[in-house]
Amino acid sequence: MSIKEEMSKRRTFAIISHPDAGKTTLTEKLLLTGNLIRSAGTVKGKKSGKFATSDWMEIEKQRGISVTSSVMNFPYRDYQVNILDTPGHEDFSEDTYRTLTAVDSVVMIIDATKGIEAQTLKLFKVCKMRGIPIFTFINKMDREGRDPFELMEEIEDVLEIETYPMTWPAGMGKRFLGVFDRNHETFVRYTGNETEDVIPYKELENSQYAELTDDATYQESEEQLMLLDEAGENFDREKVMRGEQTPVFFGSALAPFGVEAFFDTFIDMAPEPAPRRSTEGVVSPDDPEFSGFIFKIQANMNPQHRDRVAFVRICSGKFERGMNVTLGRTGKTFKLAQSQQFVASSRGTVEEAYAGDIIGIYDPNVYRIGDTILTGKSVFEYDELPQFPPEEFKKVTAKNVMKSKQFKKGIEQLVQEGAIQLFKRYRFEDYILGAVGQLQYDVFEYRMKNEYNVEVDLQTLGERIPRWLNPEQVNEALFDERNMLVQDREGNPLVLFKNDFSLKWFKDNNPDIELIDLFEVN
Ligand code: G4P
């Protein structure tokens, strides 16, 4: 196959959700449809002490490796599917956000009994600011959930995105009958076991289905569907591609029900790798020259294996093992001897890969997050990865003042690598660290000790709301410990507001001062 054909078969996406919405269960069912794993039981089962294939975090922790999001890939129909894991809970970190810069689309899972939850909202904002196409799977329809219209409305209001129900449910919980699949024009009947009964619209009039079609729940849903056809939004693929409309599917990852209907439509509609902006203009994914960027560096925390793995999202051309590449930042060329591609939980070596694929390469301590590697005469860099607004801030000091040289060096390198963010206060020598999750601090502390031999003290400033300022409007007199004025790595001024209340109070009292939310500008 040509490079163009290969890349057009790639579907690279992440699943975003709040913990417990069903990401692990859905991922496992997708792997099953790809026949990658033999039985669901081998994957899922926190109770049985086994881990889901996507729960690498725990496995890696046990092996003593630092943890971040990982990748699964498998063939489905004639496509090559790449799923990037976005860890949640206390393992939420900037890597979770950065993973979203390496995907072409996103599947958002919403628990039908709960609606939109905090973590979904955070991750959604990143997708929105990057214009990533979002497909929504409303899960747990086998339980008594919230009214589907109400869920649609919540998505539209809270996330400010148009919805288009691609499937529509008939009942829920005990009375869940199935879904109308508007894309395939079928009714998919819920049988309560793993087989799905797929009935084309035309055949629904047949008497053999009378028991179903006479059911009041079915009839109510059919009326709702007619209402949607007449008064609802039209499906608009262009809007979906721009991240302005989300196709919505209903189902149950656990049953599983509606998973295949969803995945088939998703694979057909989800975008292939898109051209990407670089310092040398837009690069097409079928460009014959290889290029990619590093969106994550995984440092091995096991002292016996000090290697690090850099995760590369391939953006163009063909990757071949042992090829020579140039690092865009320095212009230096070297050989990529070792590469690993992550297929489920077993690591295999990749011989070749194309735009959309993710490869792990050995990092002899030369890469930084956001680096571009490439072949060809023209040396360029892809657009810088955005800075994501941290939420938790801590003041950091070295326990032993004699170690201040290593302390500074360690911080500088870890900040440059993208492991954590650094802020400085005006007129103070304080080092303030910012992260989106506790995991980043754990990793920071560990690496400072093990790699730089410095023990650190971390003193929390708590959760803060960062807002960047227009440099011309900086007035030190307006700020104090509560609303702390600091500078980021580039020297840009920002305020760490104590809480929503302080932010609101400040806005009300200083209406002329512009406050910039990074989620809205990136
Ligand atoms: P997560 O990765 O998003 O955190 O969620 P996960 O898949 O682990 O699912 C969280 C819980 O919700 C699990 O139950 C899982 O079985 C259940 N679940 C997922 N999808 C569905 C669904 O479609 N319907 C129903 N009824 N439940 C669903 P648990 O009891 O917490 O875990 P376990 O004991 O099953 O391992």
UniProtKB/TrEMBL annotation:
Domain Tr-type G positions: 8-274
InterPro entries hit by this protein: EF-G-like_DII, EFG_III/V, G_TR_CS, P-loop_NTPase, PrfC, RF3_C, RF3_dom_3_sf, RF3_GTP-bd
PANTHER family, A to Z: PEPTIDE CHAIN RELEASE FACTOR RF3
NCBIfam families referenced in this protein's UniProt entry, alphabetically: prfC (TIGR00503), PRK00741.1 (NF001964), small_GTP (TIGR00231)
Record keywords: Cytoplasm, GTP-binding, Nucleotide-binding, Protein biosynthesis
Keyword Zinc: no
Protein name per Swiss-Prot or TrEMBL: Peptide chain release factor 3
Cell compartments where the protein resides: Cytoplasm
Gene3D superfamilies: P-loop containing nucleotide triphosphate hydrolases, Peptide chain release factor 3, domain III, Translation factors
Chain sites annotated for binding GTP: 17-24, 85-89, 139-142
Role played: Increases the formation of ribosomal termination complexes and stimulates activities of RF-1 and RF-2. It binds guanine nucleotides and has strong preference for UGA stop codons. It may interact directly with the ribosome. The stimulation of RF-1 and RF-2 is significantly reduced by GTP and GDP, but not by GMP.
CDD domains (UniProt xref): RF3
Protein family (similarity comment): Belongs to the TRAFAC class translation factor GTPase superfamily. Classic translation factor GTPase family. PrfC subfamily.
SUPFAM superfamilies in the record: EF-G C-terminal domain-like (SSF54980), P-loop containing nucleoside triphosphate hydrolases (SSF52540), Translation proteins (SSF50447)
Residue runs in coiled coils: none
